[in-house]
Design brief:
globular, 8 strands, disordered N terminus, Glutaredoxin, two-stranded antiparallel sheet, alpha/beta, 35% helix
């Protein structure tokens, strides 16, 4: 493992093949990741198991009753600027994916998110938010995986909590009116993403 706690591209491929591992194994990986960094205060918070990938039980989180439009502001990875959802052009729905360099399942699904981003073009706005991760580690992961959509940081997990995240990875689907249609905990393939986008976000387009 490199000093920034990232997996190599070979590890990404290996993780894709063996992706559905139990919570206990991922907890061990999270603790190892914490030990590999000299600046691991954010990662170390994960040792209590409160926010760990639970890829054995993926599914939608109940968001019934959440009828109010959402807005949130995120940090940029490479500077001191911030962006809010309300700053982006209206008219397109959003797919917001929470990822982290310490989360093997997040790494495994990122190429699928990029493929879906390319397939849907400007019809859907993809946003990746590095949750409780070091900016330099998240930026290196983005470069390794070739992700080209908007990337930001959620260093304290505030946006994750606001949008109903329970485990990692989490993906939030937001319609063009800025209403959350679903929150999915678990790994999503490109085909899964396409189905959810077509059924939830573009069905009236």
């Amino acid at each position: 493992m490199s000093t920034n706690g990232l997996l190599s591209m070979n590890s990404i491929s290996e993780t894709r093949r063996s992706g559905r591992r139990g919570l206990a194994a991922l907890a061990v990986l999270a603790i190892i990741a914490a030990g590999c960094s000299s600046e691991s205060s954010n990662v170390a918070r994960l040792e209590d198991g409160a926010i760990l990938a639970d890829v054995d039980a993926p599914g939608d989180v109940d968001v019934s009753g959440d009828a109010e439009p959402v807005n949130f502001r995120w940090d940029h990875l490479d500077d001191e600027f911030t962006t809010a959802l309300s700053d982006l052009p209206e008219g397109a729905p959003f797919v917001v994916n929470f990822f982290a360099s310490w989360c093997p399942s997040c790494i495994a699904e990122m190429p699928d998110f990029e493929a879906a981003n390319q397939a849907f073009g400007g019809d859907v706005q993809f946003i990746g938010l590095a949750m409780q991760d070091r900016a330099e580690s998240a930026q290196a992961l983005v470069e390794d995986t070739g992700v080209s959509y908007l990337i930001g940081a959620d260093p304290n997990g505030d946006i994750f909590a606001q949008l109903g995240g329970l485990s990692m990875p989490t993906t939030v689907f937001i319609d063009a009116d800025r209403n959350v249609t679903s929150v999915f905990s678990g790994v999503l393939s490109e085909a899964d993403l396409a189905d959810k986008i077509n059924n939830e976000l573009l069905q009236e387009s």
